Amino acid sequence: MQTKSKPQFDPESPKIKAYLDDVHHGTFIKEGTMVAFPTCYPGMTTPIPLDESHITALDGTPTGTLYGGTSGRQAHLFIAQFHGLSGVVFEMGAPEGANQTAATCCAGTRLYAFVNGPKGGRALSVPQTDLFGEDFIQEWGFTRPEILDHGECVQGEPVVHAVTDKDRKTVIAVTSKHIVTIDASLDDARIKVQYAGEAPGLGPIVLGSRGGVFGRDDGDSLWRFDIAKGRIQRRAVVLPEGFGGVPMSWATDPVSGQVYTASADGRIYAFNEGKGFSSALAQAPLPHVGPMAVTFDGRVFGFCGDEMSKLFCFDPSTNKVANLGVAASVIERRRYGYTFSTAITGRDGEIVFGENDNNGHLWLYFPRIRPAAARK
Question: With a threshold of 0.70, does the pTM exceed it?
């Protein structure tokens, strides 16, 4: 009888050495609480399949409902709620011919999702819904909403990312070579993708503080798209040195509208539409800063590093960075998180990260509440 050989443990492997260093120095999550939640309703439904559950897109509504999408052998769209009597992720459907979800955006009364497949990128939408309300009892039934397919964005081109305007009335998406928009105020029958013009999709895009949309351009610069005028300005802003060719990560303060990003070597910058980039504010613990989000007190939380990412906190009030360690969840069952691709701020200021790995989970991070400097 044949037996499978066991994988060899190589203590000199960079990944294993990093893992042992983290274990020996106690650098798993040091502050706050992380909860890893599976892509299902625990005990009632099954999670999204192992190799189809890389969570690559997230967005949310002011009431706390989350929408997201996965990538892998097959893409899936899902809705999630963690407030009230909920604690559930519900798979809404698997768009035919799609293996990647590039973005999800809540706008108007619908969720807009952009998925990619062998033939290019398409725009989909489903109605937003408080599917479970504030209370979700196991015995209550629910149905999957109808997913509308609005067709290819630009023929043969994958969608890279998408955002909404401040009022969530317009969706702006970028493909590999073009910008397109969707008017989210239209009814279902009239929803269509509108061509806006040429600009490269070289990574995530962001809404600026004055309403312009910015994305990585050729020649170490950013392009700017004026939503109201439908006009694209190429090479509108010059990047500071050190950004290299890696896709940029963005995080927007939900209270002030301040935008943060990081260079290829992990230096953190603020970006203000009209003023441009600040000087470098701080240094992340490791190069390659991934997904980031800002909680309500202005602190930035994100992951940095490859293969075994570490959570960090940047506090703009002090310009200091804290290394919070490798993600670990010990609530109900133990799970470690190494690779993440998206992050948003939840209803109550928690940070929600999408795990970009097999059997991907939604990770809810509840930051430590800082003590008051002084109390009388």
Answer: yes
